[in-house]
Amino acid sequence: MSRSSNKHGLWILRDAVFLRAEGGNAMHQAPALYREAAGIEDTLQATDALLAPLSGHRVTVRLGFPWTRHVVVPWHPRLVSEAEWMAWACAASEEPGGEGGTIAGDDRDKPPHIALTAARHGAPRLAIIGSTPLLKALIAQCQSHRVHLTAATSTFAYALHRYRRELPVTGCALAMLERGMLTCALRDGPSITAMTTVAAQTDVSPQIHAVLRCLALAASAPAPDTVALIGDAAAPDERIHWLGDHLRAIGEGGPA
Q: Hey, which CATH number is domain 7-64+134-158, 3.40.50.620, 3.20.20.150, 3.40.50.720, 3.30.420.40?
């Protein structure tokens, strides 16, 4: 008899929340029950109901738009320690033009929750900025239900890590579709050099090219040769290559 996994991923998206088992014998493609949520109060009610039966289990939180945003932090040769990089990231996150704008439910008077991708000499780092009120409430819920919160990251960072081996090293940008939102990013090797998130249009293929052209112009960078797409497949396009799915299929009883 197979044992059920005690590791779970809690996905918090723009309009829904879902939980799925991970690790062990859990299937990556297993459908998930989506709970519709609009705003921070609905979202926290949904997460509390999902966490309540998981006492003693381990949960990783993955935040989608608008609960997280990303800022490309430029390389600086004088930055040595992680504390210096974090201070640089905090300053960069307050500059206009960052991806995603204001995070839903955030209080600008409180310090943001920031995580940085690994450092690479001469390359920018990606700052992942999460909603402070949401994360604090999730920590409290996990403590209340005796759930071990192992980590929190963005759905984009998760997708980037999941498909890292399939992404070409050079000349390829990245696009991700998630519940009506489109995230586009320019890459230089493994590093993200510019990115933005916008509402997805019905005909998304021309939109992907237009958004990436704007990013390239703003960054004084060459337009990408090809685009790797994660999420729903777009209309056939010789320059857009679909890598695979992103979110779990909707399980029985879940909303469409």
A: 3.30.420.40
